[in-house]
Amino acid sequence: MIDNIPLNSFLVISTLMFFIGIYGFLIRRNLITMLMSIELILNSVNINFVVFNKFLYPNLLHGHFFSLIVIAVAASEAAVAIAIIINIYRNFKSIDVDNLDQMKF
Amino acid sequence: MNSYAYTLLIPLIPLFVFVFVGMAEDKLKGKLGGLIGTAGLGIGTFLSYYTAYKYFIADHVAGTGYTSFKAVEVTWLHLTDKLTINLGVLIDPISVMMLVVITTVSFMVHIYSLGYMEGERGFARFYAFLSLFSFSMLGLVLATNLFQMYIFWELVGVSSFLLIGYYYEKPSAFSAAKKAFIVTRFADLGFLIGILMLSFNTGTFDFQTLTDPHGLAIASTGGAVFMGLSVITWALIFIFIGGAGKSAMFPLHIWLPDAMEGPTPVSALIHAATMVVAGVYLVARLFPVYAQGGPVALEVVAWVGAFTSLFAAVIATTQTDIKRVLAFSTMSQIGYMMLSLGVSGYGGEEGLGFMASNFHLFTHAMFKALLFLGAGAVIHAVHSNDMNEMGGLRKFLPITHLTFLIACLTIAGIPPFSGFFSKDEILVAAFHSNKILFGIEYFVAGLTAFYMFRLYYNIFWGHDRHYHHTPHEAPLVMTVPLMILAFGSIFSGFLPFHNLVTSDGLGFESHIDWMIAIPSILAGVVGIAVATVMYKTKNALPEKLSKSFSFFYRWAFHKFYIDEVYLFVTKKIIFNYISRPVAWFDRHIVDGTMNGIAGMVQFASVSIRGLQTGRVQQYGFVFLGGVVALVLIFVYLF
Amino acid sequence: MTLNDIMFYLFAGSILTFSLLTVTSRRILRSAVYLLFVLVSTAGIYFMLNYNFLAAVQLTVYAGGIIVLIIFSILLTSHVSEKAVVAPVKQQIFSALAVAAGAVLTIMTIFKFAFTPAASPAVEANIQNVGRALVSYNRDGFALPFEVISILLLAAMVGAIVLAKKEKHLEITDNQPKNNPDNSSKS
Amino acid sequence: MNILTLFIVIPVLTVIGILFTKDLKQSRLVSAIGMTAQLILSGILVYLYMTERSAGNMAPMLFTFDVLWFPALNIHYAVGVDGISVAMIALTGVVVFAGIFASWNMEFLSREFFISLILLATGVFGFFISLDLFTMFLFYEIAVIPMYLLIGIWGSGPKEYSAMKLTIMLMGGSALLMVGILGIYFYSVPEGGQLTFNVLEIAKHQIPVEMQRFLFPFTFIGFGILGALFPFHTWSPDGHASAPTAVSMLHAGVLMKLGGYGAFRVAIYLMPEAAHEQAWIFIILTTISVVYGAFGAIFQKDLKYINAYSSVSHCGLVLFAVLMMNQSAFTGAVIQMISHGLMTALFFALIGMIYGRTHTRMINEMGGLMKVIPFLGVVYVIAGLASLGLPGFSGFVAEMTIFFGAFEHIDVFHRVATILAVSSIVITAVYILRVVGILLMGPIKDHHFDHLPDANWYERLSTITLVVGITFIGVVPIWLSDMINFSLAPLMEKLASIQLPGM
Amino acid sequence: MSLIDILTMRNELLLTFMAMILLIIDLNLNHAQKSRMIPISIGLFLVVTLIGFIPQPDRTLFGGMYHTNGLVQLMKNILNIGVLIILLQSVAWLRSPANSTKISEYFFLLISTLIGMNFMISSGDFLMLYLGLELATIPIAALAAFTHFNTKSSEAGIKLLLSSALSSGILLYGISMIYGSTGSIYFDAIGASYTNVPLQVLAFIFFFTGMAFKISLVPFHLWTADVYEGAPINVTSYLSVISKGAAAFILIIVMFTVFKTLAPVYKSMIYLIAVLTMTVGNLFAMRQKNMKRFLAFSSIAQAGFILLGILGTNKMGMTSVVYFVLVYIFSNLGAFGVVAAISAKTGKENMDDYDGLYLTNPKLSLLMMLSMFSLAGIPPVAGFFGKMFLFTSAASAGYYWLVFIAVLNATISLYYYLLVIKAMFINKSENPIAAFQSDGYTKVGLMLCALGIFVLGFWSQVYEFINNLSFGI
């Protein structure tokens, strides 16, 4: 369908998305937003897998399944993360990452 | 092994006595320790005389020279491939002569001390040390090789140290002992370096090999040259430093006056008759090497000897401590002996100085021991060393007085006392070699007579003092040795030394050169006369004289401030300017560096703590930074 | 330019835009919505690539599941109107620099590499093929990961439950309880 | 069982025995029995060694025993002794024996004390019997580590600091050593052979010279740190000063000898070419050690510091001799190790006993002690005299052998170094006599000291054992020097066979 | 592949069954009976561990996604032993009222992470590797946050989860590039065709950092200390020992098989990271006062040593890494066990609290001392051998300076290990921790550690055994 779009365009997009996700992880104060940044990262990787699979190695479905599994992992990660975040909210009444520096040095 | 093997016992008996008495010190009651020691040495003395008789007379084939041979020898240590250290007994004229001297004087001192040291705390300890000293000294003279000599040399040093420091509770006694040890040790350093050089170049320590005229030591004198002198010459000079230390030659003499802190019998034994002549003996022992291998070294010996004799004699005229006067006199006399060796040639008539030196050594041992023991008797009687606190003692101490007078006459060189003969030979030898040296010695001869009689008059004449206790003559056990030694002083001059103890073992004809003898007797008489005028009765003359030469007198009285110079060097330079900075450097620089490294680690540890802020985003940042850095380095820079 | 191209650029543009908005928007809930748009756009790309099954999973699990979870928790933990605190400028700049450096480096590296497609014929990612591969235990089959992921999901669930479970009998304190050694063994 | 293995088994059994004891009396009894057995065993070993040798057994190592331990790395438990090791073992036996008796009244945690002490001894014994570099290193570290506890728990003064410093510096040394040993291992045989840690095997081949150049400094300094090589000696004064008596004895007496022994057995033996090339650097350092240690000692006031600095000086002489690389110097080095071991152990024992009575180690606070504690005073004087190299005591023999060996080098550099080293004998005399003078002589300074008790039986036993050792070597050194000399043959052959660039 | 072949995966299967059984039993227990879970779980786990020792042939299942061989089985057994000890040591903590309601969950989560690790080690492709990694991480995050009321615990949980999510994102990106550039996710296919063109190096670096995160290599280690401190102590020991060990195992396998052609590149990279890791870890550890945090940094430094073995890239290197991890498990668990026992009884976790411990609790102190010596690499305990062999393998590749730096670092590490010993043996305390008796489980756990620390070094057959299974590039 979109075979005429160069592979590198997809990769640029996914890479940018990947680093945007990291950027979000680095600057957002809210734990949930950080979690969302993580989702961005994983999503960008998924695009990579899918695109590689489609453009380069369409004979097998490695990339496809990799993405599938990553989505599942992302879901479970999110579940646990949110559970902990809620716990933190209970303890701190806030989910600002700035509060989380009781332990340092 | 041969018929002289028994000589091994002469040193060994005192050693056993030392070990036994030393270990059982607490258990020995009363004089038991002393008696054991005296008995041991008595046997040694007997054996020594027997050896002398056997060697010089019984076994001697007329017309031949006296040979040297080893009575016993065992290997003690393999040092290097070619060097072994042996221990043994060497018999030759000088060693046998020394045996006689040492055992005689030592035996006398042993007997004398039974009285003198009576009631002292550590009486047995005293005898143990005396025995140790006797052992060491005998081992020294019997040494078959240079290294054995060094071993016993050191042992002599330590026994001297122990005996000087006998009254260890007196700080002055111990510091004197310490000084003696360290100064002689410093000299021994020279000795050791000399031994190292000599043995390295010749491959042997053995005296017989070394002194063999055709041996390597003498043959290799033309070898490597350092600062204009051959290595052998340097080695000999270094060895002489060792000898100078023990024999209290200038400038290593400073320990000897202080050593008088020891008990008087010790001074008589060690610091008059035996140990201090070890330096002379050392040079005499290596004499062929000196004479043929290092004439320059021999010249050094001569000049040092001459200077010391003059220097010491001058100081002796000003001292008031009777033992110190005797000590300086000893230095002066040893200077004579050294000079005599220094001006001597090798072989036959040429070797007159060598013979004279040994001769003087022999006679000096007798009369100087006598003087010291006499002084001991005086001190015993008045409990003081200071001649200003004495006077008129001739009435109280008749025997002491008489023997002391004999000794003074002997040392002043008045015939027919033995000192005259030996000193005369020295002057002859000096006269034939170097007129300046002769002049010095001639002057010293007069000076000697003067200060000895100054001493004599101050003690036994002058006005009477009021003593706390009336002085009384020493017991028999003390006076008998005095008498025996006086006997020796009088008659030992007649021994035919020129036939017995010569540089090459062969005898030669000797006669008294009256052209030199008469002026020297005159010098002695003048010296006595001046002393008589000044000191026989109390008058103002000495006072005036010292006033008019006040500068010179003060310097001489303070022993030319050599002690102060030494004190400066040891206290200031070594302690404060070397040791203190070293200690500081060690604590602050070296240790500081080590602690500094630890401190740096600690500092690094503190300074990177900011890395761990506890903020998860910063962790992520570092993580990303790490990834980027790795990519940069390993993808793009590599 | 075909429709496909336009579609692609549309999706690409929306992905990038909404990604940026997700991480920059100061209102959390909006961030979540932007994230939803990103995920949906991604699903669009999957559709375009003919990976329909994957696109469907993307929509249901990601967009449907995770986003809902996130929004739910946002609602639980913050007020809707609440604006997020902005990170210090320094942090933002440094992070941006590092991220930019990383992105540039990575993209440069990607462009340097010549990707070569495999010569072998393509398999269509239809439901049969996907299903077959999913249960295949031979090479290129994914039965094992499929099974393992179930353990992961179960574990995550148990973990989440254990964490979320409220414990009533304990006070919330900052420190671990200092138990008396005597009664700790009884309990 | 191999006789050498017994040297490890007996201490280990003793340690196990102590574990079952209840109080000081029992634990010291067990220790004393164990270490007496060890001393007797040392004696038996010397005897057996002598008989073997006189029976004509010319093997370089006797009583060898070899078990493959880690086949993959060819690590063996390989033991064997030559004259040098036998001598060192005998030394260790004596010092440990004396050490046990010197700490007869260690009240606080006595079991632990004796266990640590004997563990330390185990390490030392193991080190001396090992032929395998790996086990050697293992035992080396076993010997070092109990020091920390011994100083830290039972020490005095700034004990934590000293213990830490000592341990860290010595372990830093073993860092260097580790590199050296591993390097030797990987170049132990020419390409293709089975790599080995066995010293004898390695010595059969030549390690490539360029590797030697790299590895020699590591190995030598590594051992040198333990041998108090300047400027890495600073652990020694602090460590000794803080350590309890028996530990100072063992440490200065035996543990520091590991350095000299290792430098000699590993660094020089296996890498002679590099040793030749680089010796000058270390000769400078060791000469500094010798003179500097002696000068450092003059200024100290604390008895233990004085002795520690004197150890720096004397151990410097050991390394100095080792670097001279000829037969006499090597012999001298070994004798010096033994002699210093006994002397310094004696010193520390005495210092401990004096400290136990006066509760001070500052010499200026004491004085006239000879009068109150004559036995200890006399022994102190004997130790001092031995230390300053008086003939009749072991130190003299050692120093002389070293000086004569060193003097065999005829170039100016070696000569100057030698003469500087020789001059230390005077400085030694100065500080020894200074201490004797202030400490023992003169009037009693403090009336508290008027009625101090003299030595007990166990103190007498401890000191007399050491005095006997010192005197025995000093009076009849030939058996020892011949024993060592003979054992040096392989090393001398190797030294003679090497091709030196430019020679 | 027949159905019976599935039994090859006995470790994973048994653990899964065990986990399920625990959940089922738990459902049938009321509140008071929960503590019965402890003997049941430990008993079951003991059975699993023992079964692991039954030898079985090398197999490859699922078309290469799963493989097992002697070495892999050995690694699993090592992990099993470690987990067994941890389980024994966590009893005291589990019995405390705060946790007694969550016993089976604790066991379940712990076991599921272990399953993840087993899959990870056995993985033959990147998908299983990733999945195993995640399975080994996510439940751990839940465990780290296990103690609700403790803010530190929650903080640790979220820090672990977020950091690990970031790192696994980066790892995934690397894997995607590996996939993109090679066309496969199977190790065997990739290993045959991997080259060092920039993209593939970049992909490798991304992948490596993800693993480095798990092993806590500097600069990817920052989460470690905080998480270790905040997490419950048994979770900390699990993280520091089992997690790290498993990651080290798979890392060395991957390095030696998949990326072997990159060896020239990654050697210098590992060199750099090893130096950084050892040094930074030590520098941080020096100043720590909290025992858990202290052990965290010390374990970072230990991870640096592990890299030395990888650097050797030979059989010796692999052997030494596996051996080191084995030894490290016993040593570190010994230390953690003592900390856990004390913490469970008194709640004290600071080094100062240990002052004078020897006088009151000599056995614990001795075990602690042994562990410290083993960690520091002091003979005759096993740690010495572990370190020594690592150094040997690095030296075999000619990295003498690195060995030197490493041993210097070991010396620095000795410094802080000695601080602990100093606290226990030398320092005096006004109110030392009172003498107490631990429960039987803890005792057994601690004794196992002591036994391991002592025996492993001298028992050279262990090393030989590993060596026979190992391989190099």
Strand content of chain C: under 5%
Shape of chain C: globular
CATH topology of the largest domain in chain C, by name, is: Four Helix Bundle (Hemerythrin (Met), subunit A)
Number of domains of chain E: 1
State the end-to-end CA separation of chain C: 74 Å
The tally of strands of chain E reads 2
Largest sheet of chain C: none
CATH class of the largest domain in chain C: Mainly Alpha
What class would the helix/strand composition of chain E place it in? mainly alpha
Rounded Rg of chain E: 21 Å
Please state the CA-atom Rg of chain C, rounded to the nearest Å.
24 Å
Low-pLDDT stretches of chain C: 169-187
- Name given to the CATH homologous superfamily of the largest domain in chain C: NADH-ubiquinone/plastoquinone oxidoreductase chain 6, subunit NuoJ
Question: What does the model show?
Answer:
- The complex is a heteropentamer of chains A (about 100), B (about 650), C (about 190), D (about 500) and E (about 475).
- Chain A is about 75% helix and about 0% strand.
- Chain A is built from three helices and no strands.
- Chain A has helices at about 5-25, 30-55, 60-90.
- With about 650 residues, chain B is mostly helical.
- Chain B has 26 helices and four strands.
- In chain B, the strands form two sheets. Chain B has a two-stranded antiparallel ribbon with strand order 1-2.
- The longest helix of chain B has about 45 residues, at about 560-605.
- Chain D has one domain.
- Helices cover about 75% and strands about 5% of the residues of chain D.
- Chain D has helices at about 5-20, 25-55, 85-100, 110-130, 135-145, 145-155, 160-185, 200-205, 210-225, 235-240, 245-270, 270-300, 305-325, 325-360, 370, 375-385, 395-405, 410-440, 455-475, 480-485, 490-495, and strands at about 60-70, 75-80.
- The model of chain D has no long low-confidence stretch (mean pLDDT about 85).
- Chain D is mainly α.
- Chain D is built from 21 helices and two strands.
- In chain D, strands 1-2 form a two-stranded antiparallel sheet.
- The longest helix of chain D has about 30 residues, at about 325-360.
- The radius of gyration of chain D is 21 Å and the shape is globular.
- The N and C termini of chain D lie far apart (about 50 Å).
- Chain E is mainly α and about 475 residues long.
- Chain E has one domain.
- Chain E has helices spanning about 10-25, 35-50, 70-90, 90-95, 105-120, 125-135, 140-145, 150-180, 185-195, 200-215, 220-230, 235-255, 265-285, 290-310, 315-345, 355-360, 360-375, 380-395, 400-425, 440-460, 460-470, and strands at about 60, 65-70.
- Chain E has a two-stranded antiparallel ribbon.
- In chain E, helix 12 (about 235-255) packs parallel to helix 14 (about 290-310).
- The longest helix of chain E is centred in the middle third of the chain and has 32 residues, at about 150-180.
- Chains in contact: A-B, A-C, A-E, B-C, B-D, B-E, C-E, D-E.
- At the A-C interface, helix 1, helix 2 and helix 3 of A face helix 1, helix 2, helix 3, helix 4 and helix 5 of C.
